[in-house]
Amino acid sequence: MKLLLRILMLPVAGVLLFVGLVLLIYVRAHFEHNRILQVQVESLATEVSHPEPTVILASRAQVTKSRGNGGNCFYFAGQVRRHNGISQVDVIKFYQNQPVELRFIRRGQFDGAIPDNLKLPTRWGLSSEMAQEKLYMVYTWAPNGFEDATFDLRCA
User: Fold this and answer.
1) Could you give the number of structural domains in the chain?
2) What does the UniProt keyword field contain (predicted)?
3) pTM over 0.70
4) Are 114 and 80 in contact (CB under 8 A)?
5) Closest CA to 40 of 156, 120, 141
6) Nearest-5° angle of CA 59, CA 110, CA 120?
7) Of 5, 16, 44, 109, whose CA is between 20 and 30 Å from 133?
8) CA 56 – CA 70 distance, rounded (Å)
């Protein structure tokens, strides 16, 4: 009887090993795909030109998941810049043909639908006094809503 049980357990162990290997390959492939997507977003952000009188104050690249976004990941790369000497309208005009998005400081935080941990200037390492200055965020991002981010542990 024990010999029969051992013989029957071999196929079960083989199936479990096979399923585990398939899952490992699947998870690793998703992580690698998402890592490549993040690198593409970061390189796009570094290729963007900026208007002359603006100054970079902080930069960040991260993978994040926002509240209420249905399990999607955001692959984000951006900069916070000061635009003294140039109007907000001129900043918007400068970037209008570039593959980036802009957010300006309103009531002490960046406006728009961006991840919560990026809205406050203090989260960028800037002082609360700087939030009163003429600041804007220029960024590029890739939402992973059209792809499967389920197996990217950074989005868990």
Assistant:
1) 1
2) Membrane, Transmembrane, Transmembrane helix
3) no
4) no
5) 141
6) 70
7) 44
8) 33
| Identity at 3, one-letter amino acid code | L
> pLDDT tens digits, residue range 95-110?
998 888 899 988 888 8
- Which of 136, 143, 154 is closest to 54 using CA atoms? 136
Cα–Cα dist 136/114, whole Å? 13
Q: Which 3 state secondary structure label does DSSP give 156?
A: coil
Q: How many other C-beta atoms are found inside a 10 Å radius of the C-beta of residue 151?
A: 16
Using a 10 angstrom Cβ sphere, with 0-12 exposed, 13-18 middle and 19 or more buried, the burial of residue 5 is: exposed
Q: Which domain holds residue 156?
A: 1-156
Rounded to whole angstroms, the Cα distance separating 67 from 70 reads 8
Sign of CA dihedral 46, 82, 103, 129: positive
Burial class (CB in 10 A: 0-12, 13-18, 19+), 80: buried
